[in-house]
TrEMBL record:
This is Exodeoxyribonuclease III. PROSITE patterns: AP_NUCLEASE_F1_1 (PS00726), AP_NUCLEASE_F1_3 (PS00728), AP_NUCLEASE_F1_4 (PS51435). The record marks 149 as: Transition state stabilizer. Probably binds two magnesium or manganese ions per subunit. Residues 4-248 form the Endonuclease/exonuclease/phosphatase domain. Keywords: Hydrolase, Magnesium, Manganese, Metal-binding. The active site is at residues 106, 147, 248.
């Protein structure tokens, strides 16, 4: 089973890029972020023509998350994180797919720091940590995949000294990510590539992609019930070089079939 996460940076404006990648990579399940489209503007027909069923949580102009599957319709279990019923941001969606609970997330950027946007990032992260703990306690095969807007370590950022004042590299955000790992979640990409220089995002400016001046901010975290099934984890970095593409690249993992 192949499960991917991809920040598409505008699903309608970059639909042909997404469809091209789906046809090439053939992931079984995909978590998408930054749809930047209201609920009624999600391109459901084009996604279905590509062989995928979908659920999505849209928002005009900003945010937006979706889960696609070509191995059975996603059965939605949650839309939005618990803890703030007034939260208007479309940043979390969760579904049962083929025996796995899939949480797709788009964590707030948090810049500028300090300020209300950074405060919101940390509060949202706290809600994610609490919900993740509940999933661990339930002992279900689960994955939390998406754009975390966090570089966990210095290995995950080009020239880390330039990012010390940025919300994506803030000690508080990195500590929150570490709390997820301490709960038992496993960083799939780092498990397969423990010491490699590997990025998932390259800015549009300063020729970042050509210089490989990137960040690793897109993560797939596996619950203990899935860890033993991990076979591979990779970044389709070449997609970042396509015309009119997102500034993120798709990241995917491969899981072996369950014993039972």
């Amino acid at each position: 089973m192949k499960i991917a996460t991809y920040n598409v940076n505008g699903i309608n404006g970059r639909l042909q890029v997404l469809l091209r990648w789906l046809a090439e990579a053939r992931p079984d399940i995909v978590c998408l972020q930054e749809l930047k489209a209201p609920q009624e503007r999600f391109p459901e027909a084009a996604i279905e023509d590509a062989g995928y069923r979908a659920i999505w949580h849209g928002q005009p102009r900003w945010n937006g998350v979706a889960i696609l599957s070509r191995i059975g319709a996603p059965v939605e279990t949650r839309r939005g994180l618990p803890g703030d019923p007034d939260d208007s941001h479309s940043r979390y969606i969760e579904a049962a797919v083929a025996g796995i609970l899939v949480g797709g997330l788009y964590l707030p950027n948090g810049n500028p720091k300090p300020g209300p946007k950074f405060d919101y990032k940390l509060l949202w992260f706290e809600r994610l940590v609490e919900h993740a703990a509940d999933l661990i306690a339930a002992d279900v095969p689960a994955i939390l995949a998406g754009d975390y807007n966090v570089m966990p370590t210095e290995k995950d950022v080009y020239k880390p000294e330039r990012w010390v004042d940025d919300a994506l590299f803030a000690p508080e955000a990195r500590a929150a990510y570490l709390r997820l790992l301490e709960q038992g979640w496993v960083d799939a990409l780092r498990t397969i590539h423990p010491d490699a220089v590997i990025y998932t995002f390259w800015d549009y400016f300063r020729n970042a992609y050509a210089r490989n001046a990137g960040l690793r901010i897109d993560h797939l975290l596996l619950s203990p019930a899935l860890t033993d099934r991990l076979i591979d984890a990779q970044v389709d970095a070449h997609v970042r070089g396509w015309e009119k593409t997102s500034d993120h690249a798709p990241v995917w993992i491969e899981l072996r079939d369950p014993i039972n």
